[in-house]
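Before going further, learn to read the protein records used in this course. Taken together, the tokens spell out the fold as the letters spell out the chain. A record is reproduced here so that you can trace the correspondence yourselves:

***
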Amino acid sequence: MKTLFLLRHAKSSWSEPGLSDFDRPLNERGRRAAPLIARHLARGGLLPDLILCSAALRTRETLALMLPGLARDAVVRIESGLYGADAGTLLRRLERVESAVDCVLLIAHNPGLEDLAAGICGGGPEPMRRRMDEKFPTAALAAFALDEARWSSLREGAAILTDFVLPKDLA
């Protein structure tokens, strides 16, 4: 059994119009949200063995604010190829995760992350699935269970949604 967490980066700032999209930092709301999500993960007891994070500033800041709350060592990989990646690219990256890894946290961007979540979701509580399908806002976390021994088996409809949480649910 594998566990996959898909996290959209926390809310970013648009206060500096000259900044590139890649270099946008988190705003105050984003800085408050990331630790809430980390505490939610820690309370659930399912903590990542591997964290794959886009190289964009807002995803790296989201990760930095979460790491102290995860209370566990995880392998962290900051990858430029995750920035702006579509669902297919994200899926191919996950398929390359080593089989020994049981739990992965992927921190990335929409629309790719939301499309990936919708694509791999093959079950779960209907109200939770509907909520995820309606909107995947910043700092939203989707948790999936995969009844597979290898990440290379991840495909469309292969995952069961076990949790979908927003920071406002935790405040």
